Amino acid sequence: xxxxxxxxxxxxxxxxxxxxxxxxxxxIGVGILSNTFGLISGPLSxxxxxxxxxxxxxxxxxxxxxxxxxxxxxxxxxxxxxEETNNNFYLSKGILFLTDFIGLFGVIFMLRRRKLGxxxxxxxxxxxxxxxxxxxxxxxxxxxxxIFNLIISGLFIFLYSRTLHWMRx
Length: 169
Prior knowledge:
Elements: H1 2-11, H2 15-41, H3 46-65, H4 69-87, H5 89-111, H6 116-130, H7 144-161
């Protein structure tokens, strides 16, 4: 009787896995849609870049006026990131699509009880963390972005690892 109960418990998907999968599907889905629309619209034109520079200059001026000079460096680095991403437009979109699809299949595999999905999710997280360094120079990446990404990715990897007992090889 206890063997049947243990076997039955193994079949039920952990609620934590389902919650994490839904959150991951939302995040990855938004990323895929955003990249698709970005790919369709193409890189920014010179006119768009000029307009963006003017807006960023206004924003930096407002921040300085409010005494938030620390945020000015963030906006400057963000401006550099956007320009470099635009200069390497197709490379960036390719890396982002590859990253998102690795994450998508990783989550699907975990829902199908395959531990390979967990390892794919780790690769997805590492690519999401370091992929931008392939098309943006490190001097234009504000440290808060990779740190925030590392914290969120680490949290999700840790939480997904709590469901590994349910998955098979």
